[in-house]
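Students often ask why we bother encoding 3D structure as a string. The short answer is that it lets us treat folding as translation between two languages. Here is a chain of 289 residues written in the first language.
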Amino acid sequence: MPGEGSPEPTTGDGASFEDADRFVFGADPVRERWMGRPLAETRWWLELARLLADPVLYGGGVPRGDGRPVVVMPGFLAGDQTLSVMAAWLRRIGYRPQLCGFVANAGCSDRTLDRLERRVEGLWRDHGRRIALIGHSRGGHYARALAARRPDRVSHAISMGADLQGLLGASAPTVFAVGVARRIVYATGRARRETCLTGHCGCPFSRDYARPFPFEQVRLTSIYSKADGVVHWQSQVIPHADCVEVTGSHVGLIFNRKVYRVVAGALALPELPPDRPPAAIRCGGAAET
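And here it is in the second language, the structure alphabet:
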């Protein structure tokens, strides 16, 4: 924690965390109806085109990896295929990317987190070192929760466009889609609780997501865009994490050339030892162009 006289952490636009009451972790979700920016989200293909023409995709201008296994986790309703470009890039720069076997990320969060924990445990046994996690949107929820549950197995947690404060800080169409998925999961018997896929489920996943993050053991990076048309960007900015702003859409974060540079830099940071004292707050950064 900062000492006396330290500047107050901000959300990146000058507003303090204490002032942004509606986005404080644990508070009620945002109540106004926000339809998001669905048309703006269609520009993801432009972001992919820019990435394909950028040297970063071929390892230019970014640190080389150290062979660490990196588990990549897709967003809501998305499968592993959405992260195939990023996974190939991670391998190209020297990491060992691992997919999760997701066809559509819409199931019970608690079951999914248990499955991911088993995956990470197996990788830890095979490679003898802690694992890095990268999650897009809902995948970022898993990155936060699993790192909080198993800091002895996770070294880095990187979130791209995820609500890290309350799970459902998203547009009205997205929240509606989550509600539909909730009813399907419960009707098919795949939910462990009736409140599955809500912000107040009370399952082990929800408790791990909500618990204080072990910043002294795991490096947490939150990459966000103020032009995000799906998730409130304010809910992606939290104290103690490395919060890095980029320009672009929510969907396009997985193809955003600036995101790739941030991810490479975050993964290159040395892992924190378990006995490291609490880290200082670092938020409000911006990605280099």
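Translate back mentally: The first strand starts at residue 69 and ends at 73. Keep this in mind for the problem set.
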